[in-house]
Design brief:
By secondary structure, the chain is an alpha/beta fold. The protein contains 23 helices and 13 strands. 53% of the residues lie in helices and 12% in strands. The protein is elongated. The protein binds adenosine-5'-triphosphate. Adenosine-5'-triphosphate binds next to β2 and α12. Pfam families: ABC_tran (PF00005), BPD_transp_1 (PF00528), oligo_HPY (PF08352).
């Protein structure tokens, strides 16, 4: 970042802004020391003199030198503007954070209040607050600060809301990172750039506000004076001695421009920082390294995850949208289970609900949601966070958003071990280096000191997996972990998951819309359609025994090396039903070649076809397991 700042400050605009700021600061420090005597020297005989070699801006009604007074006023003018911006930040940022983090009711109440506050002219707010506090410098500072606070509150709320939905925040929440650290490290650190830019430009806006109040007689009062007050004085003699008004007016305008330019320059530096991020090359092959993972012993047939009748609904204008409608899911210790289905079938929402990452206003219910024999829905939130943080790891789709870009990899990995295991910094670091090595990242010591942008996409996924392995997870949920990666890296990440499953014994719940990915990695596949499980069977029997026409259509739509490329690939005609208009019968009926009246009228329940094979279909196809 320092390098970027140096680069942008070496441009013509950057140099001008930096030099002008230095001059202003020097003037604010030295002005009152050097020119106070001249600025306060009264000589009534020389009242309202026009500009001359002796008085560059002329004199005021008491014959005081307006140029000296303008220079002396720099300190009060700038300090007041900086103080007003600081107040706006100190009041606005926490309000914006609270509104974004504490539920939609607070957010909508906040938005209504802030919209009204922003619509109300800021100068009127400042005058109102300033007059109540008392006419003078403190009142003007507070008035302008309070008037600008809604702008910071809204900016913070919008930025926080966008960051809070990113995967690394969800991951930190899954791992039980406390709210204080979540806000400080994962949210504020990532919204700091636009906030810093706005804070810089806001000093210019504050300066205009404070000057306006002083100009109106609501700010600095004699014997104090700032540029706004001097402008007001100068205006009295605008026809005989225009420089008395133009001088302080020009200083206000110039300073405002300097702070706007500074904001632009800093924004440019941040922008350059983003664009200069380069991904490193993909690390070497994985499977052998992953074999070094410390094994976790687990009884072979232990039921790890047992979910029954999971339902998730999202409130909307047209009533509740049932995204997940009675899903049943079982994962045994060490088992590799895949969930497959078209986009929107409810795969992600189901696992997010299990990981307790679906929030109000969504409504989550389940007859049973047991993990490691413990019912999750009745646990106290703090204990549940700790429990899931040590036993469950999540790997998300997008390695770009899975890691906090503002934190070094080492800090992100050690945070988990320090929160959950209370490890010392050096022990946590040793464990983090071990885990990076185990997921195949060479030179782990150096890599720990790097930021996510210095990692390739595949390495970030590895780092994310390493983060999940900082504790000893019994279940790794990987939600489309390879979708954002290129084909060769996809294979490496899947091999890594397989190796972890084999060597560390962690069960894998892999989500994909690609049934061939599931078939390559998993032992069992759960097929979802329109929020329900339509089939659940061993992968080994997929080709032979898939019974649901939807499962069979998914298999038929996968090309393989033997596919005749001169003919079109099989596609599934039609589209999944809309959540707001679900049919009463089988949701697949309108696309199904075997559908009858019964399918349209009655929803088939998920029922056993054979031992280890369930399907929800009135006309199951295929052979036996
Ligand atoms: N926050 C939300 N508010 C409203 N509806 C949502 C929300 N999150 C998900 N949904 C809806 O729930 C349904 C299931 O979404 P989900 O993300 O689980 O699908 P998916 O099978 O994982 O698909 P994809 O592979 O595209 O992620 C979709 O119709 C989606 O639009």
């Amino acid at each position: 970042m320092r390098r970027q700042l140096r680069t942008v400050f070496s441009t013509a605009t950057g140099t001008f802004a930096a030099v002008a700021l230095l001059l202003l600061v020097a003037l604010a420090i030295a002005g009152p020391i050097i020119w106070s005597d001249k600025a306060n020297a009264i000589d009534v005989a020389k009242a309202w003199q026009p500009p001359s070699g002796e008085h560059w801006f002329g004199t005021d009604e008491l014959g005081r030198d307006m140029f000296a007074r303008s220079l002396v006023a720099t300190r009060l003018s700038l300090l007041s503007a900086v103080a007003a911006s600081a107040i706006a930040i100190v009041v606005g940022v926490p309000i914006g954070l609270l509104a974004a983090l504490f539920g939609p009711r607070l957010t909508s109440a906040f938005q209504s209040v802030v919209n009204v506050a922003i619509a109300f002219p800021a100068l009127l707010t400042a005058m109102f607050v300033g007059t109540i506090i008392g006419i003078g410098v403190p009142g003007a500072i507070l008035g302008v600060g309070i008037a600008m606070a809604p702008m910071f509150a809204r900016l913070t709320q919008t930025l926080t809301a966008s960051v809070a939905s990113l995967d690394y925040v969800a991951a930190a929440r899954t791992m039980g990172v406390p709210l204080r650290k979540l806000v400080g490290r994962h949210i504020l650190a990532n919204v700091a750039e636009p906030l810093i830019i706005t804070a810089t430009t806001s000093v210019g806006t504050s300066l205009l506000g404070i000057s306006a109040l002083s100009f109106l007689g609501l700010g600095a009062r004699p014997p104090q004076y700032d540029w706004g007050g001097l402008l007001s004085t100068g205006l009295k003699a605008i026809y005989t001695s225009p420089m008395a008004a133009i001088g302080p007016g020009a200083l206000i305008a110039l300073s405002g421009i300097v702070f706007s330019l500074l904001g632009e320059v800093i924004a440019g530096a941040f922008g350059d920082n983003q664009s200069s991020r380069r991904f490193g090359r993909v690390a070497r092959a994985m499977a052998a390294a992953a074999r070094r993972l410390s094994p976790i012993s687990a009884p072979p047939a232990e039921v790890l995850l047992d979910v029954e009748n999971l339902r998730v609904g999202f409130p909307s204008e047209n009533g509740e949208l049932p995204a997940v409608r009675g899903v049943a899911l079982r994962v045994a210790a060490g088992e590799r289970v895949g969930i497959v289905g078209e986009s929107g079938s409810g795969k992600s929402v189901s696992v997010m609900a299990i990981a307790q990452l679906v929030e109000h206003p969504a409504v989550v219910t389940a007859d049973r949601m047991r993990f490691l024999g413990t019912e999750l829905s009745t646990m106290a939130p703090a204990a549940r966070r700790r429990f899931l943080g040590t036993n469950l790891a999540m790997v998300f789709q997008n390695p770009m958003s899975s890691l906090n870009p503002a934190m070094r990899i080492g800090a992100q990995l050690t945070e988990v071990a320090r929160v959950h295991s209370g490890l010392s910094h050096s022990d946590a670091r040793t464990r983090a280096a071990d885990r990076l090595a185990e997921v195949g990242i060479a030179d782990a010591g150096r890599r720990l000191r790097q930021y996510p942008h210095e990692f390739s996409g595949g390495m970030r996924q590895r780092a994310m997996i390493a983060m999940g392995l900082m504790e000893t997870p019994r279940l790794i949920i990987a939600d489309e972990p390879t979708t954002a990666l290129d084909v060769t890296v996809q294979r490496q990440i899947l091999d890594l998951l397989l190796a972890i499953n084999r060597d560390a014994g962690a069960a894998i719940l892999l989500i994909s819309h690609d049934i061939s990915v599931i078939a390559n990695v998993c032992e069992r596949v759960v097929v979802m359609y329109a929020g329900v499980v339509v089939e659940d069977l061993p992968v080994a029997s997929l080709l032979r025994a898939a019974a649901h026409p939807y499962t069979r259509a998914l298999i038929a739509s996968v090309p393989d090396m033997a596919t005749d490329r001169s003919t079109d690939l099989a596609t599934i005609p039609g589209r999944p039903p809309s959540l707001s208009d679900l049919p009463t019968g089988c949701p697949y009926a309108s696309r199904c070649a075997f559908a009858t009246d019964r399918c349209v009228e009655q929803m088939p329940a998920l029922a056993p076809l054979a031992d280890g094979h369930l399907a929800a279909c009135w006309h199951p196809q295929g052979g036996t397991l």
